[in-house]
């Protein structure tokens, strides 16, 4: 039962990390003070920026040049892509570990190696996904309360950050579950 729970946590965390990486809603336009323009919403993501007009028309544009990106955005992209790859690899390792421990063909030592490797990889993937999401969230909150930032440039936390935090928690839970299985 614990192995299945770990697989469910890991699979959901893997899908959530991929979704958070692809979603354009990392930073969304904030409606504060006199800035009550509800005709359009601005979404800023890792790969593209989007403008939604009147809730019906959505225009998205990918970031043009890789060299023109700010360094934090480059770091966010890299960390999230590594986290997605690591989460996918650890999920496959966990599947192999669960398969061997179910059948017992390779003995307890072989399943322990796969289970331990999956647990450590899940923990690392969860940490790697948590860093850019928390870093971006902290920057958004800092800029929101900074009186020097003009009101039209203030942003709020987007849905992708919440998905990222949730998927990081699921990946960390999967890693803890598989490491606990290995310790038993």
Automatic annotation (TrEMBL):
An example of a Gene Ontology cellular component annotation for this protein is: plasma membrane
User: Which GO terms label this protein's molecular function in UniProt?
Assistant: structural molecule activity
UniProt protein name: Claudin
By sequence similarity, the record places it as follows: Belongs to the claudin family.
Residue stretches spanning the membrane: 75-98, 110-137, 157-183
Relate the protein's function as given in its record: Claudins function as major constituents of the tight junction complexes that regulate the permeability of epithelia.
Chief site of localization: other
Instruction: Name one matching Pfam family.
Output: PMP22_Claudin
Q: Which PANTHER family match?
A: CLAUDIN (PTHR12002)
The UniProt keyword set, sorted, is:
Cell junction, Cell membrane, Membrane, Tight junction, Transmembrane, Transmembrane helix
